[in-house]
Fold:
Amino acid sequence: MKFYDSQYVKKICEITRASYQHGWDERNGGNISLRLNEEDLKDYSDIIEVKKTFNLGFDASQLAEKYFLITGTGRYFRNVILQPSLDLGLIRISADGKKGELRWGFEDGGKPTSEFPSHLMSHIARLAVDSKQRVVMHCHPTNVIALSFTQDLNERHWSRLLWKMQAESLVVFPEGVGIIPYMTPGTNEIGIATAKKMQDFRVVIWPHHGIFGVGSSLDETFGLIETVEKAALIYSQIGAQGGQIKQEITDEQLRKLGEAFDVQPNSKFLTNY
Ligand SMILES: [Zn+2]
Structure:
């Protein structure tokens, strides 16, 4: 079987197009990676040969011999569905964790996203928490970015605000959201800061830029980001309606949501802590 026809390529095509259609990936904004292991890839005969190797620039030995299907640098989410074998690459991390080996894709000479180190560092952090999580997605949701200009960059404040915009929020991200300071994208420093937050959160806000989300599947990760952005959109709409809140979801109601859906809300972000 050809890897081009795999469910993994198909699903990344679908998710990148949906993310673009939501307005989260203008031009070459956004990147996504899916971790795969040898077992997931046993049916594909065209991923054996190493087509190219490159230095990772940091020690990824915790991900040695794992595979990542990832979007390319400078590529447009809008186009991935039209030319997946140009805009996507399947990279195997070498046994010493220092190099990436291109096994499939990037057929016109492309390279992985400049955020590849950030993705790998986040994968390492999340693997330590939950070995089933294998997707990292970065994009630019409009209302989340807008919030980073109007709100204090405080995790408790943001988590409470987003939880209280809709009943769904606390159920989908009971741990709340993490926030890093504004930093230059594409650097190891932003990757390290993001991965550190990923020890506690599946969503990390990059102020004035976008969001990093992780999950066990492409659908779940997309849905997580979609839920955070929906809460931010509701806040924007409240502003458009005059901004005056007449009633809200109380902390007691948040607690009851946690009980009803069997999730543990981050107690640091509820009152009476
Ligand atoms: Zn970005």
Notes: The chain has two domains: 1-114, 115-273.
